[in-house]
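dumping these here so i dont lose them again. two proteins, back to back, each one seq then C-alpha cells. dont judge the mess
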Amino acid sequence: ALSVNGELTKSQFVAKVLLVALFTGRMMGGMGSGIRLMATRTHIARLTKRDQRPAQQARFLFAFTVGNGIGPLLAAAVKMLDICSNTQPRFLPTGFAGLTLSICQFIAASQMRCLVDLPDLLDREESRVAFLEEPEVQRRRCLIM
C-alpha cells in the first residue's frame, strides 16, 4: 500500500482526493436538495389557501417522487436505443420499484390531510378548552370525531 520510503504513491493520493471530493459533493448535493425541498413546501404552505394546501402539497410530492422513479426508466429506454451494445439494461426493476413507491407515497400523502392542516385546525381557544376539560369529556369528544 505504501511506497518504499513510506509516502503515498501518486495513484493512492489521487484515489484519496477523489474520495474526499465524492463525499463532499454528495454532502453538498444532499444539503442543497433538502433545503430546496423544504423551501418549496414552505412556499406552498404560505402561498395557498388553507383548504387547498393538502392538494398542493400532494401534487408537489407526487411530481417530486415520480421524477425520481421515472429517471431510471428513461435511462433504461435510452440504453435500449443503443444499437451498438449487446447488453441489456439492468436498472429497469429499479425504475419500476421507484415508480411504485412514488404512487404509494402519493396515496399516503393524499390521505394525510390532517398532518398538513394540523397547525391551522388547532387554534389557541380549542387547545385551552381541551386542556381544561375533564378526561371523560375528552374521551367522548374523541369518540364523536
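---- next one ----
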Amino acid sequence: MRYYVIKVGRTPLKTLKIGGLIDQKVSQMTIKRRFIAGAKCPKCEALDRVVMLISGNDEWIECIECGYSENRPTHIDEPQLPEIADEVGVIQFKPRQPK
C-alpha cells in the first residue's frame, strides 16, 4: 500500500493511506469542509473556490485556487451608538402669525 503526505487544513503534514482508510493521527482530528456558494476569494477573486473549514472550535476559510487562508473572527466589533440625552424638555407651540 502506498503512503502519501498531504496537508490537511492547518494541521501539520499527515500521512494518509490510499484506499479509503485514514491513518489514526488524522482520524483524531476531524475537519469538516463546506463550500460557500457564490463567494469570491479576496486575493485572486476566483468565484466558487472558497471553502469553510471547521475543526473543533477553530473555523477558517481557504481558497482552493490560490491557497489564501483567513481566520473567522471570534467576536464582532459593534459600532458604538451615540448616547441619547435623557433630558426632558417642555415645548410650547405657538400659532403662526398671519402675514
